[in-house]
């Protein structure tokens, strides 16, 4: 952690990449573990464009459950550390696979959400956005215009939002320090960003409970530690 603290202080452009492990520390389930959201379920039947059009009742129930879970949790110390580091000019961008909106809730402003956000829902017909709590109300899936309200996340069958991808690429190409927090780095394009940063000369730090395929590329690997605790301790150095 001394290395990470030194690199953070001396970096001219630091980018942080967060995955499901960042959210699980707030109490949210991941997707693919033994207790994850996909255990015993078919994602294509619940979280795809096809499900939204052809299996709407199950689709809505699934996202109502996810929103209820989201509202019962909050950002943790790690989110707060990153927001504070941004305010101090130590972090210049956060790229996240997560859809919980906790980075923004903690105070981070420079956030690229690769998979969209569950903090908002929007109308398929007119595009009007609402707070996610509307999904839990009676008739909460119907817009004022009569259109269907969908969560603001990327569904299976949809492309990642190009503006967010472009922002993530821009930050990655400027990074001289790239920190991965809580990502297995087994899913594309997640594993592309740290790889690309490293190829362009950035220091690469990976903080994750389990080994990742890019550990051999990393300048520092921290395992079996809670992200919030790691960032707190780095901040004190």
From TrEMBL:
In terms of InterPro entries, this protein maps to: DHS-like_NAD/FAD-binding_dom, NAD-dep_sirtuin_deacylases, Sirtuin, Sirtuin_cat_small_dom_sf, Ssirtuin_cat_dom
Keywords of the record, alphabetical order, are: Metal-binding, NAD, Transferase, Zinc
Per UniProt, where does Zn(2+) bind? 123, 126, 143, 145
**Does the UniProt entry include the keyword Nucleotide-binding?**
no
Active-site positions on this chain: 115 (proton acceptor)
Membrane spanning residue stretches: none
Q: What is its EC number?
A: 2.3.1.286
Residues forming the Deacetylase sirtuin-type domain are: 1-237
Q: What is this protein called?
A: protein acetyllysine N-acetyltransferase
Q: Which organism is it from?
A: Brevibacillus porteri
């Amino acid at each position: 952690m001394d290395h990470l603290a030194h690199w953070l202080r001396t970096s001219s452009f630091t980018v942080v990449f967060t995955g499901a492990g960042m959210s699980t520390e707030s109490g949210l389930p991941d997707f693919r573990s033994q207790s994850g959201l996909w255990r015993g379920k078919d994602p294509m039947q619940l979280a795809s464009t096809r499900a939204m059009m052809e299996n709407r009742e199950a689709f809505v129930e699934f996202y109502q459950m996810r929103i209820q879970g989201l509202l019962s949790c909050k950002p943790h110390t790690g989110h707060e550390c990153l927001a504070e580091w941004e305010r101090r000019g130590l972090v210049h961008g956060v790229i996240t696979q997560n859809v919980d909106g906790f980075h923004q809730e903690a105070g981070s402003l420079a956030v690229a959400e690769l998979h969209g956000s569950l903090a908002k829902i929007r109308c398929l017909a007119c595009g009007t956005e609402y707070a996610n709590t509307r999904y839990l109300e009676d008739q909460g899936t119907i817009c004022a215009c009569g259109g269907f309200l969908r969560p603001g996340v990327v569904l299976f069958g949809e492309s990642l939002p190009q503006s967010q991808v472009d922002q993530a690429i821009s930050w990655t190409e400027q990074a001289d320090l790239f920190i991965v927090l809580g990502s297995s780095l087994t899913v594309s394009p997640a594993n592309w960003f740290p790889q690309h940063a490293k190829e362009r000369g950035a220091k690469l730090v990976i903080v994750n409970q389990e080994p990742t395929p890019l550990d051999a590329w990393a300048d520092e690997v921290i395992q079996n530690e809670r992200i919030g605790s790691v960032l707190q301790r780095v901040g004190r150095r």
